Prior knowledge:
Blueprint: E1 7-8, E2 13-18, E3 21-26, H1 28-34, E4 37-41, E5 48-49, E6 54-60, E7 64-68, E8 73-78, H2 81-84, H3 88-91, E9 100-104, H4 116-126
Amino acid sequence: MYPEEFKYTREHEWVKVEGDVGAVGITFYAQQALGDIVYVELPKVGMKAEKGKTLGSVESVKAVSDIYAPVSGEVIEVNEALVQTPELLNRDPHGAGWLARIRLSSPEELNNLLDAEQYQALVAEES
Length: 127
């Protein structure tokens, strides 16, 4: 269920790194807990993301939740499709529902994130 090539945060975000760029999103568990997502606030291209700080937010029929940056760097692209179709986060949270791409400024931060197995154990504890 959770892609092996991703890294995960304890706050239920993921990052998939290719070269020096990481695609960022929320996990299947996060979207399931939120319920039907109706609005996504994306970061601005050019914004400096800081690991652990707010990157944007998602609003569901249940609540509004902040999205935290799993890594630091510059936001170089956002998923504009989510503006018109926020439910992509529910349908495909680990694929088409990505939120932003960040050019990593501190790749060593990846060492502090969870791998898929560790993340699944965290989800099992919280369920």
